[in-house]
Amino acid sequence: LSRWLRDQTDRLPFIMRSRCQTFTLQAPNLAEGEVWLGQQGFGNARLSLDVSACAPLAAREFCASEQDVQFHALLESLVWCVSGKATSHEIVAIWSGFDIETLLNWMALIAEWMIQDKTGRGALGRHSESLAGQIEPLSLRQLMEHYDRLLGMKRQRGVSVNRELVLDQLQILWSFKPSGMQQAVYRR
Q: Among residues 36, 131, 29, which one has the least CA distance to residue 80?
């Protein structure tokens, strides 16, 4: 309701609007968010704020529920996947511990960071220099295609109930094999 009120105040009757006071609150900047999270006792404030789009309360929840530990595990597994240092079975075994929706959302976010790093303003290098180094040889076009495939998988998630197939598709996608092979598996 509050979002509706904020976005469509002109649809309220005049009598209601005339009795209301309007306040515009700005979201805190990154530095303020880091200080606030530090005061709350959370050490990895920058990652939390980057993952939660600088929303301090969401960042606090991210830290409090120890999702930052899971996120780091995902980053490390992506390094292994991209570099080929782990087998597909090992990668899928790691990812099977994640909720699929969370996994797809975080992977899409990491793919956004990869694209932003290519253009010189991303967060990936701050949180995983290893992964940033692994994707260095990839072109911006390859990264954009990768991101599009992840978004396609997110859209199809409501249709696909085969968890193992989704994890296998993700593993193939993140191994950055030739695109013909990726698309063949993706279209199943």
A: 131
